[in-house]
Amino acid sequence: MARLLIIDDESSIRDVLVQLFEYDGHEVAAAADGHEGLELQRSFSPHVTLLDVKMPGMDGLETLARIRDEDPGAVVVMISGHGTIDTAVEATRNGAFDFLEKPLDSDRLLVTLRNALDVRGLSARVEALESEIESHHEIVGSSFPIRRVVERIERVAPTDARVLITGENGTGKELVARAVHRLSSRAEEPFIEVNCAAIPSELIESELFGHMKGSFTGAVADRAGKFEQADGGTLFLDEIGDMSLNAQAKVLRALEEGVVTRVGGRRALSVDVRIVAATNKALEEEIGEGRFREDLFYRLNVVPVQVPPLRERRDDIPMLVRHFSERMAHKDRIRPRPFTGDAVRRLQSLEWPGNVRELRNTVERLLILASGDEVTVDDIQSLVGGAVSEAGLGADLGATATFNEFKEKAERAFILHKLRENDWNVSETARSVEMPRSNLYKKIEKYGLVRED
Q1: Which residues contact 325 (CB under 8 A, 6 or more apart)?
Q2: Is residue 138 part of a domain?
Q3: Residue 385 pLDDT exceeds 70
């Protein structure tokens, strides 16, 4: 059943249409003029509006413009007893879905209504899909390390500056790249991803720059590369540290000149592409070993973004667990169950070498295999395990050789955590840990603590 609104100054037309649509099982509201129609449009929220062109006071075209201003997604079918091509063109240009002439043919009217409802349904599905994609690629967390990442994204995204994202596997480097694209002026253009580690070195050039038919065995047709596909948008080069030196040289040329040449081709093609790259490797070390071009590194590393590992943002784990649980219940039809406080605290004490990706898989396993109405700490012990020390200490602290070494590492970690928690406000940190500010400065100097860029 759909909600339909009829706006027409002729009571006989309104009565006939109300009767026709109610008989067809729809919920119908009617208005005698544009002003009343606008009020019902707001309060009734119709799926489709049928709007007469000729009405006293505010005519149909003006009413259409007002409706579309307030709701750009509104589906409006114009009807008129004085239809002209010019009026139909103007109505369509102003966003009308269709234009019907009086006297109205009931069969055509019902077909038009069905088509309009199909479009409305498609629009709703597209909005739901976009919302689902947005949720899937959402950066979740409120800890200081992740807030710092989000702030960096918000500052660099509106520019066209190249971004180099670094971090361990599973930390969410792709989420950062997508957020940069989503907040940029290129958001409506393509976001093209290339996993440089997953493509054999002999095929990476074809993948990036395309190829011409017959340029190598298997090239049965001309093919555009990722640079061409991303023209106007963003090209995300994931795991760029695994790219061959030969491909690096060609990427460098594309960045410097804004042109690419397909494998086997002769014509240079201009491309307008924003590059966002990511790697889990220390590229400075790769440069020293001769595996990465220094000039390419400086071209890519205009704005660096370091994504923290999960063990450095444990405060985000409760929020992440809740986020993954809700998504899995909605998308994967996994029975939703709350995690007890002890269970969440146990998850916070794990080391998570696989980072957020490992946490997500763990939450899914627990929701599927836990036997009770809640996920408990016993479920985590039996289904997850993990290197959790009795005090919930990290592996680095547990591996210390002497008690003095342990105390120093623990003190350093504690002070660093509190400084980050207070956004490196030394006075506020000193108050929170009940330590004289002068002593805290001495500790900061002793352990060489500096605020991360």
Answers
A1: 336, 337, 338, 339, 363, 367
A2: no
A3: no
Question: Is the distance from CB of 164 to CB of 278 less than 8 angstroms?
Answer: yes
Q: What is the CATH number of the domain that holds 338?
A: 1.10.8.60
Count, in order, helices (H) and strands (E) of the chain. Answer: 20, 12
> Per-residue pLDDT tens for 172-196?
999 999 999 999 999 989 999 999 8
Question: What does the pLDDT read at residue 241?
Answer: 94
Q: Is residue 244 part of a domain?
A: yes
pLDDT in tens, 218-266: 788 888 899 999 999 999 999 999 998 988 998 999 999 889 989 898 8
Q: 3-class DSSP state for residue 133?
A: helix
| Lookup result for tokens 């989503």 | 182
Tokens 């009217």 belong to 109
Q: CA 297 → CA 209, 284, 286, 292, distances in Å? A: 20, 8, 10, 8
137/183 Cα distance (integer angstroms): 13
Q: Which of 404, 420, 415 is nearest to 437 (CA)?
A: 415
- Residue 153 in domain: yes
**What DSSP string describes 202-258?**
HHHHHHHH-B-TTSSTT--S-B--HHHHTTTSEEEEETGGGS-HHHHHHHHHHHHHS
Domain shared by 79 and 160, yes or no: no
For residues 145 and 59, the answer to whether their CB atoms sit within 8 Å is: no
According to the model, what pLDDT value does residue 91 have? 80
- Could you list the residue range(s) of the whole structural domain that residue 433 is in? 400-446
Same domain, 74 and 175: no
Helix (H/G/I), strand (E/B), else coil: 123:
helix
Residue that terminates a domain, selected from 103, 133, 163: 133
Q: What b-and-e string marks burial along 165-186, b requiring 16 or more CB atoms within 10 Å of the CB? A: bbbbebbbbbbbbbbbbbebeb
Domains: count for the chain: 4
Question: What letter would DSSP give residue 314?
Answer: G
**Are 33 and 105 within one domain?**
yes
> In whole angstroms, what is the distance from residue 274 CA to residue 293 CA?
20
Give the global pTM: 0.59
Shared domain for 329 and 435, answered yes or no, is: no
Least confident of 129-138, 143-152, 190-199, 418-427: 129-138
The verdict on 252 and 220 lying in the same domain is yes
Label the pairing between strands 259-261 and 268-270: antiparallel
Mark whether 160 and 123 lie in a shared domain: no
User: Of 293, 255, 262, whose CA–CA distance to 276 is shortest?
Assistant: 255
